[in-house]
Amino acid sequence: MIKNSITGFVDPKHKYHKLVGIKSDTEFKKKWALQKKLKDCLEIFFEVKFEEELTVYKINHGEKTGFFRCDNYALINNHHVDFEYNGPDHYNSTFKIHTDKRKAETLQDAKKNTDKDNGPGRKFEICKVPYYMQLTRDYAKYLFQDWSKEKLGKSYYTDEKFTRAIKAIYNTDDENKVYAPGLHSSKATFANFNEPGMQRFLKEMKEMSLNYPSIKHQIIHSLKLYINDVGEENKNLIIPENNKDFDKWFDLDPEEKYLNCIFPRSKKNYKF
Question: Is residue 44 part of a domain?
Fold first, then answer.
């Protein structure tokens, strides 16, 4: 066990990039993982091209009064779809959360939006991809099977697409080498969430874990490993203090059967 001489925290012994043949940790963080490869992932499963940063104008009394941008837009099965990547500020900034609410109200009501040519408004189906998630098989099924069936009328998930997606995202075709969802060494910990952000997180957890309990187990496992590394006396750096809703959610011993992905901080003997 190696402790950082400045912080006193345990430094992760292993680096994920080594396991999957990526040159450096810096390159992995800049070019790989779900947040960097989300567009590629979407195009593999939906088999259509996605447009990044589509501008949608807000309409108020017939006049354009501002605009929002869709992160990743496509027309799928006659549905206008926007996949949004939610970074940490969507959980700790009251202004960002308020903007999210106004954006959703505009995009989900065809009477409230138009394009640059003043074309007819569109009703968008919005899917949020949280920064703490990675593309495990269960999360892929949640997005491209469950969510897609409910919102788009059909499933787009296949095991073959999943294998192609993880190869594009993590440089591996082995699902057991997928980078685990949750937090590992990120400073954007759940302790930073404000109350609306925490309620957003718990709602997402409830929805995603309903049919896929592995998601909850993996995230809690990552948090407990992180707490172990910074020390119990510093756990307030990782998880919120005195939040009964979070504490109730967190009160779980992760089961080994759900932990079939890579947690760089764990004691498993991975072949790096």
Answer: yes
